[in-house]
Predict the 3D structure of the following.
Amino acid sequence: MGHIVELENVNKIYGTNHVVKDLNLTVEEGEFLTLLGSSGCGKTTTLRMIAGFEEPTEGSIKVEGESIEEKEPFERDVNTVFQSYALFPHKTIFDNIAYGLKMKKVPKDEIKERVKEIMKLVQLEGFEKRYPSQLSGGQKQRVAIARALINKPKVLLLDEPLGALDLKLRKQMQLELKRLQKKLNITFIYVTHDQEEALTMSDRIAIMHDGILDQLGTPTEIYESPATKFVATFIGETNIFDGMVSLVNEDDVQVTIENGFISGKAEGFRFGEYITVSVRPEKMKYSDTHVHGFSIVGTVKDYVYVGSVIKCIVALPNGNELKLERLAGQSLPEIGSYIYPYWEKEDAVLIHSRENSIFEALDNITLA
Amino acid sequence: MEKSHSKHEWRANTLPAMVMVGPVTLVLLFLVVAPLIFVGIMSLCKTDEYYNVVYDFTLVNYAKLISPDYLKIYLQSLLIAFFTTVICILLGYPFSYIIARTKSKKKTLLYMLVIIPFWTNSLIRIYGWRTFLGSSGWLNSLLMLLHITKEPVDMLYKTGTTILGMVYCLIPFMILPLYTAIEKLDTSLLEASSDLGAKPVKTLFEVIIPLTSSGIFSGSIMVFIPCLGYFFVSNILGGGNTDVIGNLIERQFKSANNWPLGAALSIILILVTLVLVKIYQKLGGDMDSLGV
Ligand SMILES: Nc1ncnc2c1ncn2[C@@H]1O[C@H](COP(=O)(O)OP(=O)(O)O)[C@@H](O)[C@H]1O
Ligand SMILES: [Mg+2]
């Protein structure tokens, strides 16, 4: 296992639009790394810089330790699966898939052999003589993947490859892609804006937000300990509380928020610091009396059934809403009743606010 | 009941359609179909000794058209058209590519460079070339001034000069369809090609040209066909040495005053055109891009 792709301080600026900011990212050999972020955050641009279609304004990109800035796309050992598939409409499926090998002047017999092999792998046997326009979306997708994979690239770049497929097909292709990646042991850099997809498929996820890499980690790390407020809200559902540290104990802190105070387990927070607290709906508990460390009260407003889970919406005095989630059949309070929401202190994730200068915080203290 | 229903339908659908299409149909009938029939009839007529048209059926005009003298000129005309088309492709393709792929405001400027000469009558522009290329023209003066040649170079009245004039007149008809085809080309296909290891030249032959062949096709048709008829270009720049089919027709209607023979030639030219367009269609050409 080595570093296969390294991005060092990569910046991309279009005119006055700073699209990718100081991106440092190391991709390990054989891993499935996902670039995740909302639309316009710079994912495609990052991918295109690795493929060679865009040049970084600043910074360097290395593949296998070798700087590739000087290399044209056709000289780079990476291949791309385009979101729009970009299949050659005037070439048969066979010729589309064989294109890369033909460019490398691989002998005809070997091309035939390898195309056959890869078509079997992506379950496209029998489609050799068809044209792209005669295929369904899912089949085109397989062709695009086969066309890239047949070149055995060191890294495969995939830009929202499943974006155009319907939900059922997408789920199926997610599993297939993952299977292919493990089987061929090729490094995947996968772009998506779908957090569920990222959580399902990735070894590691890099979350981008406004051109900045917010967090890099395994799906579990990212889900359980989001590093920024953006990550916390972007991945899965969560309850967010913005507040200020008002009490620091040995290994837990109390945080004052608009509706009272709450608690969480954490070290390294200072009194008076602005922080964000994130608690997943399934970790939320409730009681009909005060719980030590918590002072918030709410009214049960509504229930929402989502498949096998029930979501309970709780309104706080200031109008904010909380979500509690339970499996169907588990008990939940009645609509209209007053409850005291709380959680086990270790279930809360405490996040430093971006502007967390203690002096600034002190200046802005307004006691709730 | 039935009747009033169909009457109603007639008034609702057929009548408005007729009112709208009617005038156009009439204009077409009088300005295109009738003259065409008339030319067809005339091509089958005789002339008396003073070259007056005699309405008497004969095939003699067509028989004259297969004499070796005429065949030589057809061949010459086809060759001129062929070379003009090839040169238009070779010059027009890179130019169209540049306009189509330019993103900035320069694109409009480049596009206008193609269009603006069209605002001047092509006859005048061709005379301009004659002045430019003549033995006391600018080009020769410049060559002598720079001591590249001592004597003026004879540049007029050559096949090459006619081809130059044809290219000059017709290249916009090549550039415009090419531009349309190239602009439609999906950039991600070029990126995909490069991504899969194709050098630019490979991408050109494997992806760009095949996918813009419709533009090359229709451009070629739109250059080749007029080239057979642009008699004024070969008159002015070729001086009678480089006749195209158009010259033959012009001569029969004017100096030779043999209208039936001119009509027969016209019919031949129309047939050649139809055959070319049919071939174009057979090869998968799109009639819309010819502006038909
Ligand atoms: N060629 C370009 N010229 C100017 N701006 C661009 C260009 N490509 C992308 N951008 C801008 O960069 C930002 C990020 O785009 P992109 O990388 O495509 O985002 P994502 O793939 O995450 O949705 C967007 O604001 C987009 O408008
Ligand atoms: Mg994108």
